[in-house]
Structures are given as structure tokens and as C-alpha cells.
Design a protein that fits this description.
The chain is α+β, with helices and mostly antiparallel strands. Helices cover 30% and strands 28% of the residues. The protein folds into two domains: 47 residues, no CATH class; 129 residues, Thiol Ester Dehydrase, Chain A, CATH 3.10.129. It has a six-stranded antiparallel beta sheet. β5 and β6 form a beta hairpin. It comes from Panicum hallii.
Amino acid sequence: MPTHPTPPVINKTDSPRPQPEQQEKRAAKVGEEMEKEEPRRKLSPADSRAVALAFIRALGAGARLPAAADQPDAYSSLVRAILSSAAVSASPAPRVSCTIAVSPAVTNAYNTLHGGAVAAVAEAVGMACARAAAGDKEMFLGELSTGYLAAARLDSEVDVEAQILRKGRSVVVTTIEFRLKDTKKLCYTSRATFYIMPVASL
């Protein structure tokens, strides 16, 4: 650990009070010594932009999507591909449950379930639960909030369950819980609000 010079102790009865100029010089000297001990490189604005751009590109920004992504309904196919054991319970209140298999296709750089995949599954399962409660009506997602509490590792399985929190004439609110299959630990929670499209009366 670097040691910093200790200011000398001044006896007020023997020595005069140091002037502001002396205090500034002393502070400057201490600062110079600290810079020598812990050198820091200051980036120019151009260097800062280059570092930020390299970081964004390392995350995959700008990479070309596979040809399968251009197919119709590719997004829904991606979500369905990681879901299994889907079940719907209508009594006493609609519930939709399924299981996520955490495969490499839906993991992030840390080999855990990607946050975007969590949100996509929450929307799909929440919509299924809302339709089970409101019938086959046209509806759209109005709001989705997700809390990321713990990570689901690669090759693990996550149980997902959606249930109705509130149902009205024009709105359905669902809650979605994600729990690790082996430990039942809660890792993600979502709340989705769906608005029912009004039917035109002729």
C-alpha cells in the first residue's frame, strides 16, 4: 500500500500559523507524489469514443443476423424453441406454466439466461395467461416490467408460471415468476399489462 507523506505537526505556541500560499504548495507537492505513486492515463475524447465503440462492437452490435431471422414469425419461433412442458389451468383462476431450457442460443457473455430472453418469455407466457382469462380477443402489450434477482446458468432449467393479477373490461394484468427447477429459487419476476382492443359496433 502506498504511503503518503505526513504533514509536520506545528506547535501553535512555538511556530507561526502557515500562510495560504504555503498550504497550497504543500497540497500541490502531496498531489505530485500521489500521481507518481499511482499514475493514471487520461484519455482524449477521441480515445474515449474509440474505447466505447470497441466495447459496443464486442457485445455484437453491427453483427449480421442469421438468415433464419428474416423468416416470418422468427421471433415467436425463437421463444417457442426454448419452452417446453406448457400447461394451462383454468380453475379457480387461469394459470399458465412452462419450462425454459437455458441453451447457448439464449445466454449472454456470462453464460446465464439473457435478460432479453427473460422479457420475451414473460411477454409470451403473460399473453397466453391473459387470453385464457379474456378469451380470444385482440390485445396488445402496454407495459412490461421485469426484476432480475438471480442468474439462471447455462444448461439449467427454469419453471415459469403466469397468473392473473387483475382483469377488467379493457385491461388484463398478469404476474410471471421464474424459478430454478432444481432449487425452486426465485430468479426473475415480471408484471405485464395487456390492453384489450375495443370492438367496433356497426
